[in-house]
Amino acid sequence: MKAYPHRHLLGIEELSPEHVQTILDTADGLREVLDRPIKKVPALRGKTVVNLFYEPSTRTRASFEVAEKVLSADSLSITTATSSVQKGETLLDTARNLEAMNPDMIVIRHSSSGAPHFLARHCRSAIVNAGDGAHEHPTQALLDALTLRQKKGRLKGLRVAIVGDLLHSRVMRSNVWLLTKMGADVVLCAPPTLVPPGIEALAPVTHRIDEAVEGADAVMMLRIQRERMTGGFYPSDREYHLRFGLTAARAARAKKDVLILHPGPMNRGVEIASEVADGPYSVILDQVTNGVAVRMAVLYLLLGGSAEAVA
Question: How many Å from the N-terminal Cα to the C-terminal Cα in the chain?
């Protein structure tokens, strides 16, 4: 497996195409460990990882924990609901106290953009961004890319439509940076109220979902993030579904072998119809499996795992 030069994974923006390729290739190599009768290798034995989650999470947190266990790392998961954050402790104080326990890595999810970068400046540990505000979610973009590459055999030249709440989506930002770096053609679609200012500099934007999915190799639907909304960004869920929801009829406008992706959790009947989410072209559960493989690769590369132990 190739060497990886970075100490942290803070975002996709600063990675080169070669670095992205290294992570995807490593994830491909580690993916088969998940199919073994005994899903355990001693690649990171003796390493300690702290999962520090300031926001709710199911898929991301669980897949990091599974990845750590498969690679034999010791892990500790902390949520703010059961930590001293509830008593007023700052992020820096929390980080310094964790640092005093000498972990090798801290995986952080935080509602503030830049929180992982802040930790990287103040901690000796390797830092992995598991989602920071509306900024980035690098491992999600990597697992999405791995899923596309497995199913299509390539990323270069694919037409990928990303549809939904662009304004609040860290998944969108990481995916646009990754997919465009790797040669894919990305088109973005959302109501005008849910388009972040200046995003047209990264990828073309349309307000018509039919136009976005026309001839697409893959369609990535994004969740309406009500918890981040402070006003009325659209009239109603029903109206949103009528105008921007992915139905079977709309999916039929894409290529016949289109892939349907969603980072989860899904709002069924809002951004995606159940018949599409559960349909034959949906790779949503493949994304979940690949999430474990990608996070194994990130842990392995940042913590200097042993190739012999994997073999």
Answer: 11
Contact of 206 with 41, CB cutoff 8 Å: no
Q: Is the pLDDT of residue 82 over 70?
A: no
Rounded to whole angstroms, how far apart are CA atoms 5 and 279?
40
C-alpha–C-alpha distance, residues 114 and 136, integer Å: 9
Q: What is the full DSSP assignment across 214-252?
A: TT-SEEEE----GGG--S-SSS-HHHHHHHH-B-HHHHT
Residue appearing with tokens 């750590």: 68
pLDDT tens digits, residue range 31-44?
999 999 999 999 99
Question: What's the number of CA atoms in the CB half-sphere (13 Å) around residue 68?
Answer: 21
123-158 pLDDT, tens digit each: 999 999 999 999 999 999 999 999 999 999 999 999
Q: Is the distance from CB of 299 to CB of 305 less than 8 angstroms?
A: yes
Cis before residue 42, ω within 30 degrees of 0?
A: no
CA distances from 26 to 125, 152, 307 (A): 22, 18, 10
Sheet order of strands, 48-53 included: 74-79, 48-53, 105-110, 126-132
CB 249 within 8 A of CB 275: no
Which structure tokens are listed for 129? Answer: 């961004």
Q: Which two tokens stand for residue 139?
A: 């491992």
pLDDT given at position 126: 97
The type of residue at 141 is A
Is this model's pTM higher than 0.70 or not?
yes
Q: Is 210 helix (H, G, I), strand (E, B) or coil?
A: helix
Partnered with residue 68 across adjacent β-strands are: none
Is the per-residue pLDDT at 232 higher than 70?
no
